[in-house]
Amino acid sequence: MKKKLIYILLFVSLIINITLIYKFFYQGESVKLSSDGRTEIKMSKENRDFVMAEMRGFLESVQKINEGIAKNDPNPIASVGQQSGTCKVDVVPQGLVKSLPLGFKQMGFDTHELFDVMSKMAKEKYDRQQTQEKLNQLLNNCVACHKTYKITSE
To answer: Taking the CA atoms of the chain, what radius of gyration do you get in angstroms?
Structure first.
């Protein structure tokens, strides 16, 4: 009888944990369809300011990559990992990740990783064509994100 009760409690605990993980890491908090057809993500003003500043940083990094490709110089590209790579994930404000839907998180993490990849390529074995292809992949993320999501503050 005790074993059966333990299994039932274990099963209930598992369901609760899966639900909490889904709620806090995958679903996002305040998401609704905007009047322009995009998914509206509501977050605090501070979190919105952080995301907007991060996107401006992405644009600055894209400019550096483009400059490096145009001049066939890997040096500007090598620095973008520090500015926009995955190291920036560690400075995310509390509660921000919770407020984002899964698709937004996936695009964001992929974008940070692409900056790291291009930086590493520039440092180790620079190839202009491959860097251009990665930049195009990154810009596809940017376009998809801006077509899909709209961020507003509460």
So the answer is: 20
**CATH number of 48's domain:** 1.20.120
4, part of any domain:
no
Q: What is the pLDDT of residues 38-55, one digit of tens each?
A: 999 988 999 999 999 999
- What angle do helix axes 128-148 and 45-71 make, rounded to 10 degrees? 150
Q: Does any domain span residue 132?
A: yes
Measured CA to CA, the distance from residue 21 to residue 47 in angstroms comes to 21
Measured in Å, how far apart are the chain's first and last C-alpha atoms?
A: 51
Tell whether 129 is covered by a domain.
yes
**Cα(112)–Cα(86) distance, rounded to whole angstroms?**
5
pTM of the model: 0.78
- Cα angle for residues 76, 139, 33 (degrees, 5° grid): 140
| Tens digit of each residue's pLDDT (9 = 90 or more) over 85-116 | 988 777 888 888 887 888 898 999 999 999 99
